[in-house]
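quick one, 567 residues, struct below
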Amino acid sequence: MDISKKAKQNIFFMWLLVVPIGTFLVYRFASSKPIEWDLYFYYVVLALLTTIFPFFIAGATMILVQWVNLALFLNYGILAELVAMQLCLIPLIYHMKINKETRYKLYYSSFMFFVISVACGSFVIWLGYDIGTLVIKDVVIYGSIYAFLSIILNHVLLYVRQVATGLKPDFFTKDFAWDVICTMITLPFGISLFFLESYVGAIAFVLLGVPFLMITLLIRMYNDSEKVNADLNKASEFGHELAERMTGKEIIDMFIERIANMFPMNSAYIVDNINNQFVILRAIEDGVNKEIKFSHEDIKHSLAGNGYKKGYPILYNKQSEWIHMKPPFLTLDMQSVMCVPIYRNQTIEGVLILASREKHAFQAYQLKIVHLLCSYFAVSVEKANYVREAVAKSEICELTKIHNYRYLDRQIDIDMKKLSAGVYHSLSLIMLDIDKFKEVNDSYGHHSGNLILQEFAQIIKAEIGPNGTVGRYGGEEFVVILPNYTKLQAMRIAEQLRLKIEQTPFIVQLDLADVSRDEIIFITASIGVSSAPDDSEEGMSLIRNADRALYIGAKQAGRNRVAEYVK
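---
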């Protein structure tokens, strides 16, 4: 949650006015029992150890220090508990990943703990609790009130802070429910610690503290393993999704987007090495795709180039570990960085850079998962390239090296949809057929016929250029698709093609004679033209109409001419 600089200053001044002065006032005027400093030391150590080892339940962070602080309050009063709770902020600084920009969280947490300690303690004492009493009924009743009031007040303060920053939060959240459950579990521990310490002394911290810490650690280990399994399952699903993508662009876009959502990061970059030149293939910063360019040398001498050279994944937990090789694309507010190589066929192709503004934002196991995902990514891109090459090969005529009928059928369908959607205002199709091609084969042989088909295709391709799609539809028939060309414009193009073909000498090899020799011949072509939407609103009809114009209007009329389809 981002807040303004002024709001951060206000939080600091609020803390400065309330916590130091308030602590002094509590020391002077709040009722308390004389502190036994050796026992108090054990309380504080146990509280700190409990705070050092939090665990996570359903995405919520649980720090079960309440039971120790409850025992402190029951035994010594408000001041002893207040000071211990403030000391617990020391390990919390690490868990909260406090830096210069988020220092306000420390002040606000200190303010919250102070208010909760004073308000809850004062209320329970006002109700009639006698500090240090060993009356079981009083300790259970007032201790329970203190514990549950602390939870409610804590969430009230969090709710007020969110409302003050413009959010619309719910009060009874999942975190609130888990806090209630954890308090119900730890409340008996706190009361038991108070009584046991009162009767047996320091050994109580061993009898209760050690088992509690061991249970906490076991739960933490279990939750960590559950989290690792959950992330691995996500990685597996991600890998299957990548494998289903058919184009390299789809794979790259999906990979960078999903990586950004899976891990606690602020920016991600795919750095590719193309012909020994580093380029930023994709970049996403704060959820927004960016196009950024930097020189090869700048990237080469940064941690990206270093990671590419070393060839194994590297995790940097704070800025001081990588700032000496800062990449030009990383801003100075970044702290944690992952640098993971991307391998294909045992050859490194590039690196993935993930960055976060938080220190220690990434776990070691997450580095391994990202490395695994990079392998999925590389394999998927390679598969997509194979598929693309296979598709391209299946849609190219091996003889003429131009598109075949499969490609033409698909392209006509695509163009007709664009015409229907208003992207094109018209779509014209030219169909060409070489006149008396069977006689050429009979006279000069099929090899010469193939040479003519090859050169014929290149003449059409050169004449049309980027203005349309050229393909061999079958035998000696060729098709030209012209988006945004009217029938009149297409007729002019067809006439230009007819003249070009008529005037072009074709060199053939006379293989059927006693002595093989080259010979120059001239050929002609009959051409039919059809347009949409004038003649048809369906792709196959457009082809049939052009074919009908070719045979009826051109072939039967004497060949070597252009004919348009007439309804």
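The chain has three domains: 5-226, 245-390, 405-564.
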